[in-house]
Amino acid sequence: MSTTVAAAVAALDERYPPVWAEEWDRVGLVVGDPVWPVARILCVVDCVPETVAEAIAADADLIVAHHPLLMRGVSSVAATSYKGRIVQNLIKNDVALFTAHTNADVANPGVSDALAARLGLVDLRPLEPAGDDPGRGVGRIGRLPVPRPLSALTAQAASVLPRTAWGVRAAGDPDRVITTVAVCGGAGDSFLATAAAAGVDAYLTADLRHHPVSEAVAGGGPALLDAAHWATERPWLDDLAAYLRARLEVDVVVSDLDTDPWTLHAASPLFTPSKESLP
């Protein structure tokens, strides 16, 4: 059972055309020779030393990553830098690297479809449709089969998403009944206004910031759920792996290695006001 890097790239480009990527993004083949044989592929969110070591230990010939390794121009890939050491390690072990990022975000099915599926959302449509195809675009809006309060939806999200130290936090009335939900895998605070304009009851994404959240909730927008960036994109790897298995004669492994940078979480103790703070 073996194919080539070129065949894998062709299959990936068909599913996630590079022209769908944002202008600033860097997708496609990063390391490797198109003629290299591929018998096993490892699917990851991040190409970091830990996932490279995982690929080498698993005898993988190709890593398919969501996040680009080399986003900006470089003048050196010497082993004197963090990313240079990754590139050198990949080359020394004949492991190719391919990235599908914003082109996978807007695909249908894509990153946010997999996230919506974890919540059981139905009747999906894009949060921000692509101009040339209303069936794809950034994020997804869907309906919960059974409405539930925000507190229950938050607990559900924490239970169905990959476990991280970050967990899931929410902003809004815990008793607010949620029927329609928008989701966006990865950092999605730039679509807060889009979610509000869509009239959804809740919006789940990652990397939400204090002031935009405060202003969005105060402005009567949807309840907000903030999960770990890695956790919102990891579900897509299962869909990616299923596609690759169906298209190529290869073994495909999905990494469950948590590459979220936040590694510890301590819940605040119950607040007891000091005598000095009492009126």
Write the layout of secondary structure elements.
Elements (H helix, E strand, L loop, with lengths): L2 E2 H11 L12 E4 L5 E2 L1 E5 L4 H9 L4 E4 L16 H11 L3 E4 L2 H4 L5 H9 L2 E9 L2 E17 H11 L7 E4 L5 E11 L4 H7 L3 E5 L3 H9 L4 E5 L1 H19 L3 E4 L25
Parallel strand pairs: 4-5, 4-13, 5-6, 10-11, 11-12
Antiparallel strand pairs: 1-3, 2-6, 7-8, 8-10, 9-12
GO molecular function, one term: metal ion binding
InterPro entries: DUF34/NIF3, DUF34/NIF3_sf
Keywords: Metal-binding
Explain this structure:
With 279 residues, the chain is of the alpha/beta class. It folds into 2 domains: 3-101, NIF3 (NGG1p interacting factor 3)-like (Udp-n-acetylmuramoylalanyl-d-glutamate--2,6- Diaminopimelate Ligase, Chain: A, domain 1); 106-229, Udp-n-acetylmuramoylalanyl-d-glutamate--2,6- Diaminopimelate Ligase, Chain: A, domain 1 (3-Layer(aba) Sandwich), CATH 3.40.1390. The protein is 32% helix and 27% strand. It contains 9 helices and 13 strands. The chain has helices spanning 5-15, 49-57, 82-92, 102-105, 111-119, 150-160, 192-198, 210-218, 229-247; strands at residues 3-4, 28-31, 37-38, 40-44, 62-65, 96-99, 122-130, 133-149, 168-171, 177-187, 202-206, 223-227, 251-254. The protein has a 6-stranded mixed β-sheet with strand order 7-8-10-11-12-9. A 5-stranded mixed β-sheet has the order 2-6-5-4-13, with helices on both faces. The protein has a two-stranded antiparallel sheet with strand order 1-3. Helix 7 links the parallel strand 10 and strand 11. Helix 5 packs across helix 9. The protein is globular and about 65 Å long. The mean pLDDT is 95.
